Amino acid sequence: MSDHTERLIHIIVESFLPLLKAGVYFTIPLTLISFALGLSLALLTALIQLSDWKLLRSLARFYVWVIRGTPLIVQLFIIFYGLPNVGITIDAFPAAVIGFTLSVGAYGSEIIRAAILSTPKGQWEAAYSIGMTKAQALRRVILPQAARVSVPPLSNSFISLVKDTSLAFVVTVTEMFAKAQQITALYYEPLVLYSEVAVIYLLFTSVLSYFQRRLEKRFDRYTAR
């Protein structure tokens, strides 16, 4: 085994734990917090867009239009580097959470809105026929059915978010990709280190994909054939 090969193996072994720790302490929490908040925002935004409140509906549509029409990296720059110019300073991790939450909320709202609209009108009529109000029908009949339709695309959004968190390095959050950059600056082996972090991301997303399939099968049990 050549000295160069031994050096590469040494770098891989030495960097694996720091990269994994960055993933556990920053990437995963950032993903979970952002997705949980974003999903709540997505549901609220979807319901507002389907409501009769014209002003709020217009504001919700404007929010979705702006977030979907601009790059996520630009949004992160505005939140972390731009807002201090108007006296609003946000720490790195909360700034990343806000950016990813807004992104999940916008894209997720369209998924949820489409799922609600895909529910047959007969379900609404059946709920009204037994005396339910619109809110009761939505909560007890429509949303549970829409949830089954929403699971696959929302799960894909969650997995995508794991990868998107690599953009948090632009606001100085030391997640996995940022840690890989730091280690690369020490060893000058970008191909090896970036490939290693890619493998760790692949492991994370593979585990999530497994649980996604399990979740989809669980919801399929309640779907009429």
pLDDT under 50 segments (min length 5)? none
Which strand-content bin applies to the residues?
Answer: under 5%
Helical percentage:
over 70%
Q: Biggest sheet, in brief?
A: none
Tell me the total number of β-strands. Answer: 0
- The CATH homologous superfamily corresponds to MetI-like
Round the mean pLDDT to the nearest integer and report it. 88
**Structural class category:** mainly alpha
Globally, the shape reads elongated
Q: From the 3D structure, determine the CATH topology.
A: MetI-like fold
- In sequence order, what are the helices and strands, one letter per element? HHHHHHHH
Report the C-alpha radius of gyration, rounded. Answer: 22 Å
The total tally of domains equals 1
Q: What is the top-level CATH class? A: Mainly Alpha
Distance between the termini: 59 Å
Tally of individual helices: 8
What is the annotated CATH architecture?
Answer: Orthogonal Bundle
GO cellular component, one term: ATP-binding cassette (ABC) transporter complex
GO molecular function, one term: L-cystine transmembrane transporter activity
Family: Belongs to the binding-protein-dependent transport system permease family.
Membrane topology: Multi-pass membrane protein
